[in-house]
## 1
Amino acid sequence: MAGRHYSAYAAVKSKRSPLLLFTLSLLFLLFLFYIFTSSPSTSSPALDPSSIHAASNPNVDYSFVSSLEKFLINSKSKSSSKVRDDTVRGDASDRDVKIFDDLISQGEEKRLYGDEYPLYSQIRVYVYDMPSKFTYDLLWLFHNTYKETVNLTSNGSPVHRLIEQHSIDYWLWADLIAPESERLLKNVVRVHKQEEADLFYIPFFTTISFFLLEKQQCKALYREALKWVTDQPAWKRSEGRDHVLPVHHPWSFKSVRKFMKKAIWLLPDMDSTGNWYKPGQVYLEKDLILPYVPNVDLCDSKCLSESKRITLLFFRGRLKRNAGGKIRSKLVTELNDLEDVIIEEGTAGEGGKAAAQIGMRKSIFCLSPAGDTPSSARLFDAILSGCIPVIVSDELELPFEGILDYRKIAVFVSSSDALQPGWLLSFLRSISSSQIREKQINLAKYSRHFRYSHPALPMGPEDLVWRMIAGKLMNLKLHIRRSQRVVKESRSLCTCECRRSNSTSPVPLS
């Protein structure tokens, strides 16, 4: 009996064995497929998130010229349906300021105690409706002249390329004034009543006016813009502390800056040389560093996987700079004609751009020394090219550093170390292949944070601007309220900084 049962079991088992083996084999193959497709490839960095956004948003435009063309055409068709706001046309009286302040206080009460508004779940920005001579006329001036112009700055840089490089004022404004149904950013919303605003955006194109207007004409326009803004009740109430002013080129708006030094400035860097900003005008507690607009195309996941990085260290740019950029000529002397190193003098135009782009895509490391100021657009070109930046700029402040950790994508070297004979190349060669690989993967992830676009994308630079400013908002409100209630006998300064008579610490917000 037992034998019959065993024989039957063996017969069934013999029939099931091939099926069981096939099933197990299939499961094993599926497991292997999952492992190799879900883990990062050893030959190429992870998929660039910005390419995912671009694929899901085919209408995203990353080109300043192309985006501006569409923007100006649309502005013509929408001019008749433009939303009117309550921007004051003329000098606000003390009574106007008092009425405005009361309205602000009422709104704050509702947000603090009522359920009508969440408490600062979004930043609410009021965009001033400035006369067209400060906004659209300047954009049209750029649009109508950029193809024909051969104007160069004193150091040989193409004027219109510099404007594109510093066009952060366009990208932020174009996003803020777009119809809400077309905007992708949800942490910042435009409001049309001043008393509802947390912040006030000044849409004056300071860089375009500086480069494309005659000197005296430009200075006159700056004075007009200054008067127009400082006449607003919101400015008078806060002395500009809650106003956002784009001054991304260090030469722009220079003649009237001292009258607007309490506003939030959007800058390329803090400039420790003292050549561009006067003491007390800029500091991290108040202002914000924004990336330059890159001059190269994104090296996407396909490009990254195909790039053969055969050069250890690459640099292409102007080899002699002023002020803080003198480190360049010293580095060139140290690195010239060394094996695995390419150092080239930069040239303007499409040819120069193509040469820089090709060189960066063929290199593991890209040298990023200081320019005339501590920052350089080359840093962001390297990031988009998948080339690990080697930052030799002792006083550099970086964009969005409260959010991004640049140690994951860059190498930081002091000037004194970099200039020691043989030190820099020995240091770079000591970095392991696994560390290089990790930084390259992070470069692919981080590139989305430095690509301006329209519409602005979540976690793009426009988005990170408002996320960084959100962190300053409570402190701004503190200093506005404090400035309104202090009496004569109060201390004129409010700071937690330890100050000495010879201190160079930042001037406090109040």
Note: The two ends are 99 Å apart (CA to CA).
## 2
Amino acid sequence: MAVQEIHAEMVSSVWKVFVAPGAEVAAGDTLVILESMKMEIPVLTEHAGTVGELHVVEGEVLQEGDLIATVTS
């Protein structure tokens, strides 16, 4: 059982959340969309699995490196 941690790559705000803890996801699925400098940035899973924890809510401001979610495969 591998756990994938998904982190913010830049300072941004959470525009839209697409998953909840316990959701099944496929490789390449969008977990959330971040907004930075009027650009929408989808955050994708690398591997299929189950969303273990979701650490963000819509409207939240993230700093580079903040944990967004964990996915267990």
Note: Strands lie at 3-7, 12-17, 24-25, 30-36, 39-44, 49-54, 61-62, 67-72.
## 3
Amino acid sequence: MSINQLVYLSQSVRKVSAEELRAIQATAQANNQHIDVTGSLFYNGGWFLQVLEGPAPTLASLYARIEQDPRHKHSRVLYNEPAKFRTFPRWTMNMINLDDRQADKYDELVEVIDAARGDRKIGAASPAATLLKIFRA
């Protein structure tokens, strides 16, 4: 079965605690393992950037549910394309909280989220393409 990668950006309606982020991750992990979805969620300063990988129809359905989640607003898809392979094959959902400033690749990831928020490119690449490239390296 072919897979797609969907990357979206959204704004939290309020500051999210580390405990709440862990709960979001745990729920996503439990749900995603049953629907063949992998990915990673990034949180920084009230913004979510998430990569979802899986069958295109599954991602469409999942994103429709995500859009209805009242914990965030202004959700928009930055990237939704077929992929030859998964960037996050080991994780039903990885989570990186950039607010704790302990993440590997912290500066690169903050730049990606800032570029996505401002609807600008990083060099000649979209923020989503840059994000996927960071983790393929």
Note: The beta strands are 3-12, 38-44, 47-54, 72-83, 94-97.
